[in-house]
Design a protein that fits this description.
The protein has two domains: 223 residues, 3-Layer(aba) Sandwich (Alkaline Phosphatase, subunit A), CATH 3.40.720; 130 residues, 2-Layer Sandwich (Gyrase A, domain 2), CATH 3.30.1360. It is 29% helix and 24% strand. The protein has a six-stranded mixed β-sheet with strand order 10-11-12-15-13-14. A hairpin with a 2-residue loop joins strand 5 and strand 6. Helix 7 packs across helix 9 and helix 9 packs parallel to helix 11.
């Protein structure tokens, strides 16, 4: 959800929260600006270096030897937790800490990422957990299905459209209304049936789903935003009917922003071809290993940001791929473990996790508007131009929605200080009187709380840049813009000379 779509005509329920609460004008998603990374940051108050989730899909050979796994997936989470002493997420979540403090919790999500918020088998003080039509414990699903019916499917015609099938003239994909409505009802009619817990989470899958189907500003995307706002209204009304709205603090936060795909480049095919013809050291690049990986194999996964895993971390292959990226016209900022020439270190973006790849690059981006006049375009792999995506260092992917309203929130306040998804958990824990188990990367958003009388520090912005002269006579350069507030840092955006060359 992009903050520029919070409007009185489009999102009346969210707009009412803005009018009676605080709008965070400079909120930041955590980089990488994807769902699972930010779902983890929202849940823990940590950046990837401290919560352990690097991307939506990661190569974790102890879980799956020949392919990447979804970091929100139920079976990778279960296997990963077993193998790591419950350290799939390396930081406790809000729900886990609230229950340890003796309070109750509930959570429901249209997407599997909701499982990351509360995946533990210790359910003391917890309502059953609902995620993408599944429940924990499993037995609760039967209760929900009797009340709500079976978990709905996404629109079949949307799946055909995504698969590239020929569609009728004038076809417009539909928003994922049915699944989001089922999830909302699961929370307010099921998990809240016997009372509203101290802390609840509702995670909806739109407008993310619909903007991937189309792009920001499309009729489908706008319909999805209206739907999600309607579901927010259902939750607010349920709180009102139960007599607890006036003592409930509500935080509305999105995992990331969104961009339009302006140009497609077949990263995978191009990398595979380069690997076979590489002059210094040839390699085999694939999206899935066909057998036990061998030296010279490279596994890659693509999106708004793109990951490359080099078997045995072969330094010659890594260096060769980096030079290939810098010689092209599609890569935004490139990151490597140790900061090879012309790249940033993972630590520069706080993403140095245990399972980090060898190379990460953001797609290049621009401010150019799409056909609906919505700014923010990027280069991508595998999806037709005009579609939607995210995950890059674009300001349009990173800057996202955060607003709050309730008895402890300043009314009618527009907060111009930098904030981030990592700040949601420390603020909620503070309002609940729960002391975090360990120091958090995020901060308490004190300036947005009722009764705040202090003077916050003045934010400062800096730009870091690296350059490299290439053998072909070109000069590669890339930059990141970072804003600092006190001892907290936020990545605003970043790009490369490849974007300027187009």
């Amino acid at each position: 959800m992009r903050p520029d779509f919070i409007r009185e005509d489009l999102t009346p329920n969210a707009w009412s929260l803005v009018k009676r609460g605080t709008f965070f004008a400079k909120n930041h998603a955590t980089f990488i600006s994807t769902t699972e990374v930010n779902g983890s940051s929202i849940a823990t108050g940590m950046k990837p270096r401290n919560h352990g989730i690097f991307a939506n899909n990661e190569y974790r050979p102890d879980v799956h030897l020949i392919a990447t796994v979804p970091t929100q997936g139920a079976w990778p989470i279960r296997v990963g937790d077993i193998l790591s002493d419950q350290q799939w997420l390396t930081a406790p979540t809000i729900a886990e800490q609230v229950r340890k403090a003796g309070f109750t919790t509930a959570g429901a999500g249209t997407k599997e990422v909701a499982l990351l918020h509360d995946r533990g088998f210790d359910r003391a003080g917890a309502a059953p957990h609902v995620f993408q039509g599944k429940t924990h414990p499993k037995s609760y699903l039967e209760v929900l299905e009797k009340a709500l019916g079976k978990w709905p499917s996404v629109p079949k015609e949307n799946e055909d459209f995504s698969a590239g099938k020929k569609m009728p003239e004038g076809f417009v994909p539909k928003s994922n209304t049915a699944q989001n409505r089922w999830t909302t009802r699961a929370l307010i009619e099921g998990l809240w049936k016997d009372g509203v817990p101290k802390f609840s989470t509702l995670w909806l899958g739109d407008p993310d789903y619909s903007q991937h189907q189309t792009r920001p500003g499309s009729p489908t995307a706008l319909s999805a935003i209206r739907d999600s706002d309607t579901h927010l209204g259902l939750a607010i009304e349920a709180l009102r009917k139960r007599g607890v709205l006036e003592k409930t603090n509500i935080f509305l936060v999105s995992d990331h922003g969104f961009s339009t795909i302006e140009r497609t480049v077949p990263y995978g095919k191009s990398l595979a071809a380069f690997g076979k013809s590489a002059a210094k050291k040839k390699f085999n690049a694939v999206t899935r290993f066909k057998q036990t990986p061998r030296p010279g194999d490279v596994l890659f996964t693509t999106g708004g940001s793109n990951l490359l895993y080099v078997v045995d971390h072969d330094p010659e292959i890594i260096a060769e791929i980096v030079e290939w990226l810098q010689s092209g016209d599609f890569a935004g900022p490139i990151f490597t473990r140790d900061g090879l020439p012309g790249t940033f270190k993972f630590a520069d973006a706080w993403i140095e996790t245990k399972h980090a790849p060898d190379i990460l690059w953001s797609s290049s981006w621009s401010e150019r508007p799409n056909s609906f006049g919505v700014p923010g375009s990027l280069t991508s792999d595998g999806t037709k131009p005009g579609g939607g995506s995210h995950g890059s260092t674009s300001r349009f992917c990173i800057h996202n929605t955060l607003l709050a309203a309730g008895p402890d929130i300043r009314p009618g306040f527009r907060n111009e200080l930098p904030s981030g998804n990592v700040d949601v958990a420390p603020t909620i824990l503070h309002l609940l009187g729960v002391r975090p188990e360990k120091p958090l990367d995020g901060r308490i958003l004190a300036e947005a709380l009722l009764g705040f009388t202090g003077t916050p520090p003045t934010p400062t912005t800096r730009r870091i840049e690296v350059k490299r002269d290439l053998p072909n006579g070109k000069r590669w350069s890339q930059w990141l813009q970072i804003t600092t507030l006190g001892d907290k840092e936020y990545l605003d955006e970043g790009n490369s000379s490849a974007a300027e060359a187009k």
